[in-house]
Predict the 3D structure of the following.
Amino acid sequence: MIPTAPPSPSTAADAPEVVLRDFGTGPFGIYVHVPFCATRCGYCDFNTYTAGELGSSASPQSWLTALRGELSAAAGLFAELPSSQPEVSTIFVGGGTPSLLGGDGLAEVLAAIRAHFPLAAAAEVSTESNPESTSPAFFERLRAAGFTRVSLGMQSAAEHVLRVLDRTHTPGRAVAAAREARAAGFEHVNLDVIYGTPGETTADLDATLDAVLAAGVDHVSAYSLIVEDGTALARKVRRGELPAPDDDVLAARYERIDARLSAAGLDWYEVSNWAAGPAARCRHNLGYWDGGDWLGAGPGAHSHVGGVRWWNVKHPARYADRVAADGLPAAGCETLTADERYLERIMLGVRLRDGLPLTDLDAAGRRAAEQVVTDGLATPIAGRLVLTDRGRLLADAVVRALLT
């Protein structure tokens, strides 16, 4: 039975049951977290584990068994809805390195979702992949299984930049993998780029952009390097072995990326994302940015339904144990207050090319928006606040101004 009061962190396991009372009517997505990596990248602070770190405590097979159990338990809760079970509009398999599961393993993941949730006829089904663990046969298996979109971690075309990032693929492999994906029938292929790595030159960035455009992809994600606490990269920066990224350099890099991609017909639709038209945009990520509902499955995955967010236990072995014992492996939850939901709406909506509806702002926010427009950081278009080119460089400052 669904409880009538919001859960506290001490009753986190009840969180999914509670929020179904307020389940939305918009698009519904499922995110699956694959926690396995062959090696650990020095800049990464995601919930990932190498085989050496896990030992015999967990494996892809034990993870898949637990994933099936979690999906079954979650579907049982959604089945209690007074209306029909929600159709899944988008699926995103991320990590970690999902491609380590191989084409057959990822096909099993999709089959596990289909066994418990109805998919919309035109569902977007994406997976992240490391170029080194892909092949023509891999992409052909994904297409046959029903995947519609692939995101490849390229990061850079410069070998010395990849070394700083502790990436193991060769510089040309990402482009080759993108072409293999297109040849297998994938219309939508993304390449991830990281810019501002210590030692990266303007020529290095230009070579990366040349390679990206030569790959013929319809989507590019470009992120400035962030030095996350607790990572190997952060330790090197702290010891003075590497310089910290320079804000002015990052801004110049961003402008260069935007100019090159825009000239090639890839237009920005979110501050860090460019696509060759609306059909090429990542609908799953748009669900996040638009404040939609999604179920997160797998170790450490986060869910958001009806204004409540909950998250799973992180370690794959403990995750499997919790699923076996309780069905749902929630480690904690929070019911978002009206102020928190307002803050998130502003933080995410401002970053979108479609802009933030001015009606979403309170009186203080609308006054702040007038000043943001006066400062040349945004412009009002059809009742929405849309960042200017300069505003994109200062998007965080715009958010702070609107929330002051």
